[in-house]
Amino acid sequence: MRPEVSLVIPVYNEEESLPELFSRTVKVLKGLNRPYELILVDDGSRDRSLALCLELREREGSIRVASMNGNFGQHMAIMAGFSLARGEMVITMDADLQNPPEEIPKLIRAMERGHDVVGTIRTFRQDPLFRKVASKIVNKVTNRITGLRLNDYGCMLRGYRRRIVDLIIQCQETTTFIPALAQKFALSPVEVSVKHSERKKGESKYGLFKLIRLNFDLMTGFSMVPLQAVTMTGIAVAVMSLGFTIMLILRRLFLGPEAEGVFTLFAINFFLMGITMMSVGIGGEYVGRVYQEVRKRPRYVIRHVYQEEQEDD
Prior knowledge:
Elements: E1 5-11, H1 18-30, E2 36-42, H2 49-59, E3 63-68, H3 74-84, E4 89-92, H4 104-112, E5 117-123, H5 129-146, E6 158-161, H6 162-170, H7 178-185, E7 189-195, H8 208-222, H9 225-255, H10 262-295, E8 302-306
Parallel strand pairs: 1-2, 1-4, 2-3, 5-7
Antiparallel strand pairs: 3-8, 4-6, 5-6
Protein backbone atom coordinates (compact mmCIF):
# COMPACT_ATOMS: atom_id res chain seq x y z
CA MET A 1 0.00 0.00 0.00
CA ARG A 2 1.36 3.41 -0.95
CA PRO A 3 2.09 5.45 2.19
CA GLU A 4 0.38 8.77 2.87
CA VAL A 5 3.12 9.98 5.20
CA SER A 6 6.88 9.62 4.72
CA LEU A 7 9.16 10.52 7.60
CA VAL A 8 12.78 11.15 6.61
CA ILE A 9 15.41 11.13 9.35
CA PRO A 10 19.11 11.67 8.55
CA VAL A 11 21.36 9.78 10.97
CA TYR A 12 25.01 10.47 11.69
CA ASN A 13 26.75 8.98 14.74
CA GLU A 14 23.60 8.95 16.87
CA GLU A 15 23.75 5.45 18.37
CA GLU A 16 23.05 6.76 21.89
CA SER A 17 19.83 8.51 20.86
CA LEU A 18 18.49 5.96 18.40
CA PRO A 19 16.78 3.44 20.75
CA GLU A 20 14.59 6.14 22.32
CA LEU A 21 14.09 7.83 18.94
CA PHE A 22 12.84 4.58 17.41
CA SER A 23 10.40 3.74 20.20
CA ARG A 24 8.86 7.21 20.36
CA THR A 25 8.76 7.76 16.59
CA VAL A 26 7.21 4.40 15.73
CA LYS A 27 4.57 4.93 18.41
CA VAL A 28 3.65 8.32 16.92
CA LEU A 29 3.53 6.98 13.36
CA LYS A 30 1.30 4.07 14.34
CA GLY A 31 -1.00 6.50 16.12
CA LEU A 32 -1.61 8.40 12.88
CA ASN A 33 -3.93 5.60 11.72
CA ARG A 34 -2.84 6.00 8.11
CA PRO A 35 -0.24 4.31 5.89
CA TYR A 36 3.26 5.55 6.62
CA GLU A 37 6.89 4.83 5.93
CA LEU A 38 9.96 5.69 7.97
CA ILE A 39 13.10 6.38 5.93
CA LEU A 40 16.33 6.35 7.89
CA VAL A 41 19.32 7.73 5.98
CA ASP A 42 22.66 6.79 7.50
CA ASP A 43 25.07 9.52 6.43
CA GLY A 44 28.30 7.56 6.74
CA SER A 45 28.16 6.99 10.51
CA ARG A 46 31.28 5.62 12.15
CA ASP A 47 29.48 4.12 15.15
CA ARG A 48 26.70 1.52 15.36
CA SER A 49 23.99 3.80 13.95
CA LEU A 50 23.54 1.82 10.73
CA ALA A 51 23.41 -1.49 12.61
CA LEU A 52 20.72 -0.12 14.95
CA CYS A 53 18.69 1.16 11.99
CA LEU A 54 18.82 -2.28 10.39
CA GLU A 55 17.78 -3.91 13.68
CA LEU A 56 14.72 -1.64 13.79
CA ARG A 57 13.88 -2.57 10.22
CA GLU A 58 13.95 -6.24 11.17
CA ARG A 59 11.50 -5.64 14.03
CA GLU A 60 9.10 -3.19 12.42
CA GLY A 61 7.40 -2.93 9.05
CA SER A 62 7.30 0.15 6.84
CA ILE A 63 10.97 0.93 7.54
CA ARG A 64 13.44 1.66 4.79
CA VAL A 65 17.13 2.27 5.47
CA ALA A 66 19.49 4.01 3.07
CA SER A 67 23.23 3.75 3.60
CA MET A 68 25.24 6.63 2.15
CA ASN A 69 28.70 6.10 0.65
CA GLY A 70 30.36 8.53 3.06
CA ASN A 71 29.36 11.64 4.95
CA PHE A 72 27.63 14.06 2.56
CA GLY A 73 26.02 16.32 5.17
CA GLN A 74 22.56 16.69 6.65
CA HIS A 75 20.89 18.36 3.68
CA MET A 76 22.24 15.90 1.11
CA ALA A 77 21.10 13.03 3.36
CA ILE A 78 17.62 14.54 3.38
CA MET A 79 17.75 14.91 -0.41
CA ALA A 80 18.58 11.20 -0.62
CA GLY A 81 15.60 10.50 1.61
CA PHE A 82 13.39 12.64 -0.62
CA SER A 83 14.43 10.58 -3.63
CA LEU A 84 13.12 7.47 -1.84
CA ALA A 85 10.01 8.93 -0.22
CA ARG A 86 6.65 7.95 -1.72
CA GLY A 87 4.19 9.68 0.59
CA GLU A 88 1.96 12.61 -0.30
CA MET A 89 3.14 14.29 2.89
CA VAL A 90 6.87 14.20 3.63
CA ILE A 91 8.24 15.19 7.02
CA THR A 92 11.88 15.68 7.99
CA MET A 93 13.27 15.41 11.50
CA ASP A 94 16.67 15.24 13.17
CA ALA A 95 17.74 12.12 15.04
CA ASP A 96 18.91 13.85 18.21
CA LEU A 97 15.40 14.08 19.81
CA GLN A 98 15.67 17.82 20.36
CA ASN A 99 12.55 18.02 18.22
CA PRO A 100 10.02 15.68 19.86
CA PRO A 101 8.42 13.17 17.44
CA GLU A 102 5.15 13.80 19.26
CA GLU A 103 4.89 17.10 17.34
CA ILE A 104 4.56 15.31 13.98
CA PRO A 105 0.71 15.23 14.02
CA LYS A 106 0.72 19.03 14.33
CA LEU A 107 2.54 19.30 11.00
CA ILE A 108 0.19 16.82 9.34
CA ARG A 109 -2.86 18.79 10.48
CA ALA A 110 -1.36 21.95 8.98
CA MET A 111 -0.79 20.22 5.63
CA GLU A 112 -4.34 18.86 5.70
CA ARG A 113 -5.57 22.45 6.02
CA GLY A 114 -4.00 23.13 2.60
CA HIS A 115 -0.48 24.34 3.41
CA ASP A 116 2.19 22.95 1.11
CA VAL A 117 5.17 23.82 3.33
CA VAL A 118 5.00 23.70 7.11
CA GLY A 119 7.92 25.35 8.87
CA THR A 120 8.45 25.28 12.61
CA ILE A 121 9.52 27.68 15.33
CA ARG A 122 11.22 26.22 18.38
CA THR A 123 9.67 27.52 21.60
CA PHE A 124 11.67 27.66 24.83
CA ARG A 125 14.81 26.48 23.06
CA GLN A 126 17.00 24.29 25.24
CA ASP A 127 20.28 25.42 23.71
CA PRO A 128 23.21 27.41 25.12
CA LEU A 129 22.65 31.18 25.24
CA PHE A 130 25.33 31.77 22.59
CA ARG A 131 23.54 29.56 20.08
CA LYS A 132 20.16 31.15 20.74
CA VAL A 133 21.49 34.69 20.33
CA ALA A 134 23.51 33.75 17.23
CA SER A 135 20.44 32.03 15.75
CA LYS A 136 18.28 35.14 16.18
CA ILE A 137 20.89 37.31 14.52
CA VAL A 138 21.35 34.87 11.64
CA ASN A 139 17.58 34.57 11.12
CA LYS A 140 17.15 38.35 10.86
CA VAL A 141 20.18 38.92 8.65
CA THR A 142 19.30 36.00 6.37
CA ASN A 143 15.74 37.22 5.92
CA ARG A 144 17.03 40.64 4.90
CA ILE A 145 19.55 39.18 2.46
CA THR A 146 17.42 36.47 0.86
CA GLY A 147 14.03 38.18 0.99
CA LEU A 148 12.51 35.13 2.69
CA ARG A 149 10.31 35.23 5.77
CA LEU A 150 11.37 32.36 8.02
CA ASN A 151 11.55 32.77 11.77
CA ASP A 152 13.66 29.70 12.49
CA TYR A 153 16.06 28.43 9.84
CA GLY A 154 17.71 25.92 12.15
CA CYS A 155 14.77 23.65 12.99
CA MET A 156 14.60 20.65 10.63
CA LEU A 157 11.27 19.33 11.87
CA ARG A 158 9.31 20.41 8.77
CA GLY A 159 6.57 19.17 6.49
CA TYR A 160 6.36 19.25 2.69
CA ARG A 161 3.66 18.32 0.22
CA ARG A 162 4.55 15.97 -2.62
CA ARG A 163 4.67 18.79 -5.20
CA ILE A 164 7.30 20.66 -3.18
CA VAL A 165 9.43 17.54 -2.69
CA ASP A 166 9.35 16.79 -6.43
CA LEU A 167 10.46 20.35 -7.22
CA ILE A 168 13.30 20.15 -4.70
CA ILE A 169 14.49 16.86 -6.21
CA GLN A 170 14.60 18.51 -9.66
CA CYS A 171 17.06 21.13 -8.40
CA GLN A 172 20.60 19.97 -9.12
CA GLU A 173 22.79 22.41 -7.18
CA THR A 174 25.51 20.70 -5.18
CA THR A 175 24.99 22.85 -2.09
CA THR A 176 21.58 23.92 -0.92
CA PHE A 177 19.49 24.74 2.12
CA ILE A 178 16.26 22.75 1.97
CA PRO A 179 13.95 24.91 4.15
CA ALA A 180 14.81 28.04 2.14
CA LEU A 181 14.50 26.19 -1.18
CA ALA A 182 11.07 24.87 -0.21
CA GLN A 183 9.98 28.37 0.81
CA LYS A 184 10.86 29.61 -2.68
CA PHE A 185 8.49 27.04 -4.23
CA ALA A 186 5.69 27.26 -1.66
CA LEU A 187 2.27 28.64 -2.57
CA SER A 188 0.79 28.43 0.92
CA PRO A 189 3.55 28.20 3.54
CA VAL A 190 2.93 28.39 7.25
CA GLU A 191 4.97 28.17 10.44
CA VAL A 192 3.82 26.41 13.60
CA SER A 193 5.33 26.41 17.07
CA VAL A 194 6.88 23.18 18.31
CA LYS A 195 8.52 22.12 21.52
CA HIS A 196 12.26 21.85 21.85
CA SER A 197 14.22 19.58 24.16
CA GLU A 198 17.74 19.61 25.49
CA ARG A 199 20.12 17.16 23.87
CA LYS A 200 20.50 14.40 26.45
CA LYS A 201 22.74 11.97 24.57
CA GLY A 202 25.52 12.34 22.07
CA GLU A 203 26.88 15.68 20.92
CA SER A 204 25.93 18.22 18.30
CA LYS A 205 27.34 17.63 14.82
CA TYR A 206 27.29 21.37 14.10
CA GLY A 207 30.38 23.07 15.45
CA LEU A 208 31.14 26.74 14.87
CA PHE A 209 32.88 26.13 11.53
CA LYS A 210 30.03 24.00 10.17
CA LEU A 211 27.45 26.59 11.25
CA ILE A 212 29.41 29.31 9.44
CA ARG A 213 29.69 27.14 6.33
CA LEU A 214 25.97 26.38 6.44
CA ASN A 215 25.08 30.06 6.62
CA PHE A 216 27.43 30.85 3.73
CA ASP A 217 25.58 28.19 1.72
CA LEU A 218 22.28 29.76 2.67
CA MET A 219 23.23 33.34 1.83
CA THR A 220 25.20 32.69 -1.36
CA GLY A 221 22.78 30.05 -2.60
CA PHE A 222 19.70 32.27 -2.46
CA SER A 223 20.83 35.85 -2.95
CA MET A 224 23.27 38.10 -4.80
CA VAL A 225 23.09 40.67 -2.00
CA PRO A 226 26.54 39.80 -0.52
CA LEU A 227 28.21 40.48 -3.89
CA GLN A 228 26.18 43.64 -4.38
CA ALA A 229 27.06 44.80 -0.86
CA VAL A 230 30.75 44.29 -1.62
CA THR A 231 30.40 46.32 -4.81
CA MET A 232 28.64 49.18 -3.01
CA THR A 233 31.20 49.09 -0.19
CA GLY A 234 34.01 49.23 -2.73
CA ILE A 235 32.43 52.25 -4.41
CA ALA A 236 31.93 54.03 -1.08
CA VAL A 237 35.50 53.33 0.06
CA ALA A 238 36.86 54.50 -3.32
CA VAL A 239 34.92 57.76 -3.04
CA MET A 240 36.14 58.35 0.53
CA SER A 241 39.71 57.52 -0.47
CA LEU A 242 39.53 60.02 -3.34
CA GLY A 243 38.24 62.69 -0.99
CA PHE A 244 40.99 61.92 1.51
CA THR A 245 43.62 62.12 -1.24
CA ILE A 246 42.33 65.50 -2.39
CA MET A 247 42.42 66.75 1.20
CA LEU A 248 46.05 65.66 1.59
CA ILE A 249 47.01 67.37 -1.69
CA LEU A 250 45.35 70.65 -0.63
CA ARG A 251 46.98 70.45 2.79
CA ARG A 252 50.40 69.98 1.20
CA LEU A 253 49.84 72.94 -1.13
CA PHE A 254 48.64 75.36 1.54
CA LEU A 255 50.31 74.11 4.75
CA GLY A 256 53.35 72.28 3.45
CA PRO A 257 54.45 68.66 3.94
CA GLU A 258 53.70 67.00 7.27
CA ALA A 259 55.09 63.99 9.04
CA GLU A 260 52.29 63.59 11.54
CA GLY A 261 49.43 61.21 11.01
CA VAL A 262 51.57 58.27 9.94
CA PHE A 263 49.76 55.86 12.24
CA THR A 264 46.42 57.20 11.05
CA LEU A 265 47.46 56.38 7.50
CA PHE A 266 48.51 52.91 8.63
CA ALA A 267 45.10 52.39 10.27
CA ILE A 268 43.32 53.53 7.11
CA ASN A 269 45.54 51.25 5.03
CA PHE A 270 44.80 48.24 7.23
CA PHE A 271 41.08 49.03 7.05
CA LEU A 272 41.20 49.13 3.26
CA MET A 273 43.19 45.88 3.21
CA GLY A 274 40.51 44.27 5.38
CA ILE A 275 37.78 45.44 3.02
CA THR A 276 39.75 44.05 0.08
CA MET A 277 40.31 40.67 1.72
CA MET A 278 36.63 40.41 2.71
CA SER A 279 35.58 41.29 -0.84
CA VAL A 280 37.89 38.69 -2.32
CA GLY A 281 36.56 36.11 0.17
CA ILE A 282 32.92 36.74 -0.69
CA GLY A 283 33.69 36.70 -4.41
CA GLY A 284 35.59 33.48 -3.84
CA GLU A 285 32.55 31.90 -2.18
CA TYR A 286 30.51 32.44 -5.33
CA VAL A 287 33.34 31.33 -7.62
CA GLY A 288 33.80 28.20 -5.51
CA ARG A 289 30.14 27.32 -5.87
CA VAL A 290 30.34 27.82 -9.64
CA TYR A 291 33.36 25.50 -9.64
CA GLN A 292 31.42 22.86 -7.71
CA GLU A 293 28.53 23.07 -10.15
CA VAL A 294 30.58 22.79 -13.34
CA ARG A 295 32.36 19.66 -12.10
CA LYS A 296 29.01 17.85 -12.25
CA ARG A 297 29.93 15.41 -9.51
CA PRO A 298 27.11 13.48 -7.80
CA ARG A 299 25.64 15.40 -4.88
CA TYR A 300 25.43 12.21 -2.88
CA VAL A 301 25.90 8.49 -3.40
CA ILE A 302 23.57 5.90 -1.87
CA ARG A 303 25.56 2.74 -1.25
CA HIS A 304 22.56 0.52 -0.55
CA VAL A 305 18.84 0.74 0.23
CA TYR A 306 17.53 -1.87 2.64
CA GLN A 307 13.87 -2.53 1.83
CA GLU A 308 11.45 -5.27 0.89
CA GLU A 309 11.97 -6.69 -2.57
CA GLN A 310 8.52 -5.63 -3.74
CA GLU A 311 9.40 -2.03 -2.86
CA ASP A 312 12.33 -1.92 -5.25
CA ASP A 313 11.87 0.53 -8.09
